[in-house]
Amino acid sequence: MVGKIEARGPAPRHERVLAWYDRHGRDLPWRVRGGPHPDPYHVWLSEIMLQQTTVAAVAPYFRTFLRLWPNVAALAAAPVEEVLDAWAGLGYYARARNMHRCAQVVCADFDGAFPDDEMRLRGLPGIGPYTAAAIAAIAFGRRARVVDGNVERVVARLHAVEAPLPGAKAALGDLAAALLPAGSAGKFRYGDFAQAMMDLGATVCLPRAPRCGVCPLVCDCAGRAAGIAETLPRRADKVPRPTRRGIAFWIEGPDGAVLMRRRPKSGLLGGMMELPTTDWREAPWIPEEVQAMAPAGTAWRPLPGLVRHTFTHFHLELAIWAGSPTDAGDAAGDWIPAQDLAALPLPTVMRKAVAHALARV
Predict the structure, then answer these.
(1) Residue 226 and residue 224: Cα distance in Å, rounded?
(2) Do β-strands 273-274 and 258-262 pair in parallel, antiparallel, or remain unpaired?
(3) Active site residue: 6, 15, 47, 289, which one?
(4) 154 in Cβ contact with 178 (< 8 Å)
């Protein structure tokens, strides 16, 4: 539980933040507290999983991956389909494909050891500027600018930056870097400081109702002094997401098994299992088009209602059409017993589609 800071005095900001972290930082399965730097494999795995995903959602997946593939060599040797199946439900599936490819590159080009500097880390698949900085700081103690959404919020409020995101990202990054004292690796706890700033945003400098009374930086916060802290950081108006539409086919064989298939390796949800579907497009589908694209000859009927799901760049409305094949041999895919569908590794949108069909067939 977060407690009040007894002394805010003249201590430098980074010292106050680290003192707060030592008492109130989160215990997370990929962290090492009060000891040597954590395993770079653990840091990399957690940082990839945490991209656009909450800590609560990531923790069980992190533990599962370590159980299945305890080191980078084991992950590199795994079939990519198994990695995608273990990832199912976590979303943004390109991360899993890039993760698998990255593990292979680390083993092939770096003898199974992650490089310890940002520039070489950024050359690996799926690792961008933020992730490279986080790995360099947390796993190797490098002086690196680690700025996620939580850190942006802390810095925007600390300096009362009213320019909206995403345009203000560079300025906020510079201000975050200015909090780091000069020095070489080993002279300062750069990894702990990076995690402390993230924890400060996640548990104290909250988007709504920030807990200013327990913040180690409250006496320096220009946003709080101006009475605008809760409005920061500002954000530019979002461009509305378009809506795409598709048809998913629910096909039951004579024994009650349901036809599933694996999506192509490239593209959205690449390599994941799904109900057979049409393309996803903005124009509505007409019955004649649906019949022509159905995966097996049958008498098709639309089920009532729609499955709705939102991806990063668009909303999806998925109608479900149900039928029984006249010839099971005409349908390409895998026939899965209905009772096994709940355990099948499926992306979230397909879990919604299966649940929708089961409730209406």
Answers:
(1) 5
(2) antiparallel
(3) 47
(4) no
Task: Give residue-wise pLDDT tens across range 123-172.
Answer: 999 999 999 999 999 999 999 999 999 999 999 999 999 999 999 999 99
pLDDT digits (tens, 9 = 90+) for 311-324: 989 999 999 999 87
Neighbours of 318 (CB within 10 A): 22
Cβ atoms of 238 and 61 closer than 8 Å: no
**317 class by beta-carbon count within 10 Å (0-12 exposed, 13-18 middle, 19+ buried):** middle
Give phi and psi for 57, each to the nearest 5: -75, -35
Catalytic residue status for 47: yes
Strand residue runs (E) in the chain: 243-251, 258-262, 273-274, 301-302, 307-310, 315-323, 334-336
Phi, psi of 163 (to 5 degrees): -65, 135
In terms of Cβ atoms closer than 10 Å to its own Cβ (0-12, 13-18, 19+), residue 338 is: middle
For tokens 């009060």, the residue is: 34
Domains of the chain: 13-231 (1.10.340.30), 243-360 (3.90.79.10)
